Amino acid sequence: MMRISEFQTKDVVNVANGKKLGNIGDIDIDLDTGKIRSLIILGAGKMLGLFGREEAIVIPWQNIVKIGADVILVRLHDADGG
After folding, report:
1. Start and end of every PRC-barrel domain (predicted)?
2. Does residue 77 contact residue 11 with C-beta atoms inside 8 Å?
3. I need a surface site. Which of 13, 25, 44, 60 has the fewest CB within 10 A?
4. Of 71, 72, 76, residue with least CA distance to 57
């Protein structure tokens, strides 16, 4: 079993291009089944947070390749993730 706090400390890396996407800011859970639907990477702050945030990256559960000790590997082929 893994706690949400453990998910949040792991780096998320896109295996399609090797780019580090960030860390998990939120998790979308199906309340009927209790299963995770997607992981959400919050956008980085722009100019010291003065001008809002970049758009969040939503990673569907089926795009997760591997959850390791320090990193979560995902496969994304879009503009945000590569």
Report:
1. 1-75
2. no
3. 44
4. 76
What are the tens digits of pLDDT across the range 8-63? 889 999 999 999 999 998 999 999 999 999 999 987 655 455 555 568 899 999 99
Inter-CA distances, 36 with 29, 45, 47, 71, Å: 4, 26, 32, 18
Note whether 15 and 73 are within 8 A (CB). Answer: yes
